[in-house]
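Cross-check.
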Amino acid sequence: MRPILGLISMVTGTLYYGDIGELRKLFDLLRLKGYRVVGPKLRNNVIRLEELMSFDEMPYGYTDSQSPGRYRLVKSDGESFRVGPDSLKKYLYPPELVIFSVTKDWKIREPEFYYPKTAFFGIKPCDMASVLIMDRVQGAGGDPYYLRARENSIFIVENCLTPGETCFCGTMGTGPEVKEGFDISYTLIHEDNLVLFRCGSDTGLELLTSLDLEPAPSEIEIKYRRMMREAKERAQAPFTIDDVPDLLEHSLNDEIWKKVSEKCLGCANCNMVCPTCFCFDVIDEPELDGSSKRVRIWDGCHSYIYAEIAGANLRKDLWARYRHWVLHKFNYWQTQFGTLGCVGCGRCITWCPAGIDLRQVVYDVVKEVQKR
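Predicted model, tokenized:
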């Protein structure tokens, strides 16, 4: 193949193709340009989101089997992997962050938020969508750490051809093909041993012009569109989001919430793995030498103490806390930020120890409201 010469030769939004060696070349180019590359990595039989030193650390050759309350890694020759328990929130909005520290002689020191320029490589469209939602929450709220991290991050997104059993990005409009926010998207078509690339920003444009790519011919593009349609049809929930926010608003006092949350343990696993849950608590950690630090930590609305205010609890019952979480994702978020708070990644389904399926919960509540 002939390399594409010059920025003017490549058009943003157009599909280009090359072999898998070009994907490796892109990875190496990012490292050469000084990026910390973060992406899927095999760790203790789970695909985690960690720094990668080599393209070979990408878990190609593996896929995952996910269902409510169950995750298993499986070797695969063609099917790619889905999301693990980690999301980009782990890096852009870390689970523990020191806000300031106090020395033993009572001097206050605010940390300088250092965030190396980072390329998120091989992330999924649902996670890219979660970043755009976080922009409306942490970004618009002026979180200095988030803004610094966001400024120093680029996103190389892998489109999904084989959504998992717990995925419903097709319903939420967040996948399986990334639409916006990315710098480069790519799609691995294993059976043809080729990779399709698309640039979504000037940074992505500059990177792709260093690869040996050609515009995708019509037959490849037609096949790609067909595979994307099939993937979207597979990644569906048993409801549509058109009227879900309005219907859920009328469910507040329905007994159905007690039924759908019967298995909930209040463990807040769903809060922790969710790529958009943003609630936090602030704690003080004193040291034996007289110093201390104030730390921001993730919090979850399923925990009992979350709703405690001035000695009273606004939601003493677990079912009420579960109801609040679902309504926030599918109703309150729309009012607050102009978007739904769920991207359909399915993490809350897979990593729920009780195997509660959020898709079924929303469907059941909506049906109950419609009966009335």
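The two ends are 63 Å apart (CA to CA). The first helix runs from residue 20 to 32. Passed to J.P. for a second look.
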